[in-house]
């Protein structure tokens, strides 16, 4: 079977499971979903061996305009693959994820950075209290349903400090149950307090950098 056909089959199967969850009144991309997903394998997205993932991480780091941030929030830290690098750009870093399995691995991965705080949090339920000088959401907001995206955006912007930087990095592609990165970008671009500083697309990922305020 070709890679394209395999992708289509996978997407159909995921679509069926999402429909079944919906009919049962459950959220598909739940804590349980991600805990089971991480428990099945270490590095489930194969970041460590992927040139695309390395380029993606490099773009995130290059796009953040300031050398160092007093306080940073990373939403959806997974096993800490980007976190170790963000930690070198922050005096304080709070890294959150919906999955406790991922958080435990991230703690081990980031053991050399005592100033990173980890918390199990579901962003669909709430955002930790700021203000944060930088907020990084990479590959995570796609899992929050479209209808909840505006409210989530408003909560994120509320916790961003005045003149703070917000970096979004998401896959542009439409995958069942996920919100395409470009749609998320457009929702954030409509926020009255955000100014778009840059927008890039590479390897099917879009990266947006916003700043709060217009001063
Ligand atoms: C594709 S990984 C991205 C990891 C990392 N940010 C990166 O870019 O390499 C998505 C992560 O988001 C987490 N996640 C998904 N939905 C979430 C939610 N509602 N709240 C917090 N984290 C969530 C998942 O558990 C997973 O670790």
Automatic annotation (TrEMBL):
<dbReference type="GO" id="GO:0032259">
    <property type="term" value="P:methylation"/>
</dbReference>
<keyword id="KW-0808">Transferase</keyword>
<dbReference type="InterPro" id="IPR008715">
    <property type="entry name" value="SAM-MeTfrase_NodS-like"/>
</dbReference>
<keyword id="KW-0489">Methyltransferase</keyword>
<dbReference type="GO" id="GO:0008757">
    <property type="term" value="F:S-adenosylmethionine-dependent methyltransferase activity"/>
</dbReference>
<dbReference type="Pfam" id="PF05401">
    <property type="entry name" value="NodS"/>
</dbReference>
<dbReference type="GO" id="GO:0009312">
    <property type="term" value="P:oligosaccharide biosynthetic process"/>
</dbReference>
<dbReference type="InterPro" id="IPR029063">
    <property type="entry name" value="SAM-dependent_MTases_sf"/>
</dbReference>
<protein>
    <submittedName>
        <fullName>2-polyprenyl-3-methyl-5-hydroxy-6-metoxy-1, 4-benzoquinol methylase</fullName>
    </submittedName>
</protein>
């Amino acid at each position: 079977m070709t890679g394209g056909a395999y992708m289509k089959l996978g997407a159909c199967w995921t679509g069926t499971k999402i429909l079944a969850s919906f009919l049962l009144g459950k959220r598909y991309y739940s804590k349980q979903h991600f805990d089971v997903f991480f428990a099945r394998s270490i590095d489930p997205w194969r970041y460590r061996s992927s040139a695309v993932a390395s380029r993606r991480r490099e773009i995130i780091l290059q796009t953040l305009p300031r050398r160092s941030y007093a306080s940073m929030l990373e939403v959806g830290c997974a096993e800490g693959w980007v976190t170790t690098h963000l930690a070198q750009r922050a005096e304080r870093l709070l890294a959150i994820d919906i999955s406790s399995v991922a958080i435990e691995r991230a703690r081990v991965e980031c053991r050399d950075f005592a100033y990173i705080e980890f918390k199990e949090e579901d962003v669909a339920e709430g955002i930790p209290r700021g203000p944060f000088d930088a907020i990084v959401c990479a590959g995570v907001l796609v899992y929050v349903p479209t209808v909840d995206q505006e409210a989530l955006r408003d909560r994120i912007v509320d916790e961003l400090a005045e003149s703070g930087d917000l970096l979004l990095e998401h896959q542009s592609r439409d995958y069942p149950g996920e919100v395409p990165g470009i749609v998320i970008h457009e929702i954030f671009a409509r926020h009255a307090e955000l100014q778009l500083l840059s927008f890039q697309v590479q390897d099917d990922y879009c990266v947006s950098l916003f700043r709060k305020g217009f001063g």
